[in-house]
Amino acid sequence: MIENWIKRMATLQAVVIIAILGWGAWQGVAAINSAPAQQRLRPTLTMEAFLAGRFAAAVNYVMAHNLPVDPYVRAAGGFFRWRLFNSGGPQVRVGCNDWLFLTEELRPWPDAAAAMAERVAGLARIRERLAAQNITLLVAIVPDKARVQAEQLCGAPLSAQAAERHAELVTAFRAGGITPIPLLEPLRALAAQRPAYWRTDTHWNQEGAALAATRIAEAARGLNFDRPGGFTTRFAAEETNGPGDLLRLMGLDIMPDGWRPAPDRQHLATTTAPAPATGGLLDDEASPQVALIGSSYSLNANFHGFLQEALGAAVTNLAQAGGGFAGAARSYFAGATFREAPPRVIIWEVLERAMAQPVGEEERAFLAQ
Amino acid sequence: MIFASFEFLFLFLPLFFVLYFLTPARFRNWTILLLSWAFYAWWRVDFLALLGGVTLFTFFVALRVNAAEEASDSRFRWMMVGLVGNLGVLAYFKYANFGVQSFNQLVTALGLTPTPWAEIILPIGLSFYVLQSVSYLIDVWRKDVPVSRNFVAYAAYKAIFSQLIAGPIVRYAEIEHDLKHRVHTWEKFGLGARRFMIGFCMKVLIADTIAPMVDVVYALPNPSMADAWAGAIGYTLQLFFDFAGYSAMAIGLAQMCAFRFPENFNNPYLSGNIQEFWQRWHMTLSRFLRDYLYISLGGNRKGPIRTYVNLLMTMVIGGFWHGANWTFILWGFWHGGLLALHRYWRGAGNGPMPFILGNALLMLAVILGWVAFRAHDVTSAFAMYGAMFLPSSIALSDALAWQVTPDQWWCVLIGVVLVYLPLLGSRLPWQRPVEAMGGFWRLCWFWAPTAGFILGMVLLYSRAAVPFLYFQF
User: Shortest Cα distance from A25 to chain B (angstroms)?
Assistant: First the structure.
């Protein structure tokens, strides 16, 4: 009786595993036939590459990245880690109430103090050089989300170094003769009432961005540049999802809302510039006298628009997503925009978490100039 | 190619089964041989020549051993030729780097010029297939097994992909019959698949989840007490679930092809003493060491002192077999010493300890042993011991905390629970004989591994693959 049951189940099991392997074979063959896989495999289709193991490595890569089912499997893996273990994977920490934090903000970095000192010293030199050209440099430190929304960490491990980083950074700036525009306390005050950062994204939200823009504009009040005004910000009537980059890092960007931390919602803000007061076809438009360099924070949540509105002046936004501390500055100072139309004021938005990270060779060369 | 990879699951395995079952029965050993060689050559084609060479050499030497008269010098000489040839290959590839490095350290300390030396790469699986050759030659010499006259069958035995690179160490006698007469049934295929999936879950769901945390701890320059214990316990679990999982996969794959492989693990962490541990851990290696080394050294037949020395030597050689590193020798001394101490304790008339005390002491000893086994060098091992017992700080360090994700902590806990759960025996409905299970648990017993396998594939795809730990040995 039971032997027959086991036999039936084992036979069914055999059929199921054959079905799984058959489906897998279809996935594997489809992956190999895909265009990106063919591109990767083609150079390895030689005897020399085969003997050196490069063909095997290429097939390995294709099978790990190009299966047709790829996005769904990644999403399922992310869902499993998050739902069952409250884990966001290696790049994301899950706080309470669906608040997500970038692990990069929480971790300690080797030789953080030296890296911060090197960057501050470089920035001080740049500021002096700019001053010699009658350009004022304003520096604003964007505090980590984990610092501003610390109540939402709920046990996510904030390292001692990360906890002290902002204060040490301000001290380092002051030692270098630079007073950064204070954004931490205003953002914290805002966060005490309502979120200043997205729950599911590492950046500040529109309210945080607007507040930071206002504070920077206040710091720039006495500076000499034209303020024609006329910038207006409008909010979309319809509510839409926020950016949610941390959901993407968790693999949950394609999951339905009920199966992931609910995305942030926003009435998307858009700032429009006043129409140029020109009369003729060939009138020159004056270049903006304020330039903004920095990180993705300057590109997100309409920060650039809010800043223009708060300053009453056009701002050239040269920030670089993923550029870290100096990526945008390197490109800007080496480029034609700066050479041919130098601004009167440069606002350098400095990302707190980027300041303690190891200094790369290119950045070191730039800072040493 | 590793079992827990998509090129294996989605390309090699389906192709293997299609070709295998399309091949007429009398040629199926050919299919096994050729596809196993292809499996092996996936990493390095040139090392296939070494596998082929060792196979051919051992096959013909065994024929010579068999042809010689019983108890003759010639028979012994041919057996020794086979052993020296096999062990010579192992020694060259596995220990030449270590030997030259040690020699160069010595001559450098004496102010002399070191010998120039290019590092030799260790062919994967060499340790395992050399041990197979040794056991086969000795078994033929002892007439415990008839010599194989069918090269394809013998080569297929050595090369069969499910055990080629990390064991279990299958003796020729154990599958000689299966090589000639295999009876394929849906039942064997399904039960083999179930076994394979259990092993896959052990490796991918538990061992691979813990692996990053263990790697971080063993790379910390100054681990705290909590770091060191977390890493040591994590590795203790990782190694077990990785290796026992691999063995289960190998046994399951073999069963799908109608082979019956020996078991390699039997709840080793539930042992009450070190002797029992070695009867349950890597059982095919343990019995190899017992049958071909310990007994050959005289075993326990030459008095207590010689018995202690034999135990120590057997484990030190066993440790050195794992790799050319002083850490493995330290680990071998540790386990040999523990086995000798246990024998002395029992010899003095002491009965077994209460299980809880015995198991706690055993696990402490095993965990300490695995620290040496895992550490990069002896200095790192002692740094870990220092952190475990004489720490400069107690709490989990920042350097570790940010890198360990909640699923890793949970899997450590789940791993500990899974290790000790069998103690509850038949109180757990799924541990009763299938006949005594209720309908629901019977279905779970059968289908939970399939669900785990699908989940394992999902997790495997959504993170980096972790190679099998025993590949490096």
Answer: 5
Amino acid at site A350: V
The pLDDT assigned to B44 comes to 80
Residue A276's pLDDT band (boundaries 50, 70, 90)? low
Residue-wise pLDDT tens digits, B278-317: 999 999 999 999 999 998 888 888 888 899 999 999 999 9
Is the confidence at residue B161, as pLDDT, over 80?
A: yes
Q: Could you report the per-residue pLDDT of B17-36, keeping only the tens digit for each?
A: 999 999 998 899 999 999 99
Confirm or reject contact between A47 and chain B (CB < 8 A): no
- Which band of pLDDT confidence, cut at 50, 70 and 90, is reported for residue B466? low
Tokens of A98: 């669906």
CA-based torsion, A24, A26, A29, A35: positive or negative: negative
Window 25-44 of A, Cβ < 8 Å to B: 25, 27-28, 31
Q: Which residues of A173-211 are buried (b: 16+ CB within 10 A; e: fewer)?
A: beebebebbebbebbeebbeeebbbbbbbbbbbbbbbbb
CA dist., res. B137 & res. B205, Å (int)? 39
Whether B181 is catalytic is no
Is the pLDDT score of A279 beyond 80? Answer: no
Contacts of B317 (CB under 8 A, 6+ apart): B289, B293, B332
Please answer whether residues A53 and B44 qualify as being in contact, where contact means their C-beta atoms are separated by less than 8 angstroms. Answer: yes
H or E, element range at A101:
strand A100-102
Which residues of B fall within a CB distance of 8 Å from A18? 17
List pLDDT tens digits, range A289-300: 999 999 999 999
**b (16+ CB within 10 A) / e for A245-265:** bbbbbbbbbebeeeebbebbe
* Residue B335: burial class (beta carbons within 10 Å; 0-12, 13-18, 19+): buried
Predicted confidence at residue A185, as pLDDT, reads: 96
**For residues A135 and A193, is the Cβ–Cβ distance under 8 A?**
no
At residue B221, φ and ψ (nearest 5 deg) are -70, -35
Answer whether residue B48 shows pLDDT above 70. Answer: yes
Q: Which residue has the tokens 């049934």?
A: B185
Which residues sit opposite A136 in a β-bridge? Answer: A345
| Least Cα separation, residue B262 to chain A (angstroms) | 21
pLDDT-based confidence at B69, cuts 50/70/90?
Answer: confident
DSSP-derived secondary structure for A319-346: --TT-TTTHHHHHHHHSHHHHHS--SEE
Q: Which of chain A's residues have a Cβ under 8 Å away from the Cβ of B190?
A: 9-15, 17
Pair A350, A139: CB distance under 8 Å = yes
Burial level of B109, CB count in 10 A (0-12/13-18/19+)?
Answer: exposed
Contact: B399, A108; criterion CB under 8 Å: yes
The closest of B360, B358, B317 to B95, measured between CA atoms, is B317
Radius of gyration of chain A (CA): 26
Section A128-149 average pLDDT: 95
Q: For tokens 């910038």, what's the residue?
A: A231
Out of B45, B191, B410, closest to residue A10 by CB: B191
Residues 153-182 of chain A whose Cβ lies under 8 A from any Cβ of chain B: 157, 159-161
At B473 the pLDDT is 54
Give the pLDDT confidence score for residue A312 in this predicted structure: 94
Adjacent-strand bridge partners of A204: A197
- List Cβ neighbours of B246 (8 Å cut-off, separation of 6 or more): B3, B166, B167, B199, B203, B468, B470
Mean pLDDT of chain A: 92
Q: Which of B282, B322, B335, B342 is catalytic?
A: B322
Which of chain A's residues have a Cβ under 8 Å away from the Cβ of B3?
none
